[in-house]
Design a protein that fits this description.
Blueprint lengths: L17 H12 L2 H4 L9 E5 L4 E5 L11 H12 L6
Antiparallel strand pairs: 1-2
């Protein structure tokens, strides 16, 4: 399962600091629903950068589910890196 929360930044908004975005992702990774079900309790926050997309993510394997192939994760991350905004 892949959960994504895109956030469009309005043109007149102050720049969103990467540290604030990372803090939000860290907060989500620490949620009991995530932390308690994670197969590995060490949840690493990773940076994701593409031509128009940037952000942070974490990869967690739910210890109660069957593992997905690594190719699936790579394909999902490539999709996110290539994301762009089109009106």
């Amino acid at each position: 399962m892949l959960l994504v929360t895109p956030a469009e930044i309005p043109v007149n908004a102050r720049p969103l600091l990467p540290a604030r975005v990372r803090t939000g992702v860290e907060r989500l990774a620490a949620e009991p629903e995530i932390a308690q079900r994670a197969e590995d309790p060490r949840i690493a926050i990773q940076e994701l950068r593409g031509p128009q997309a940037s952000g942070y993510y974490f990869n967690v394997t739910d210890k109660t589910w069957t593992k997905a192939a690594a190719d699936d994760l790579d394909a999902a991350l490539d999709m996110l890196r290539s994301a762009r905004h089109a009106p």
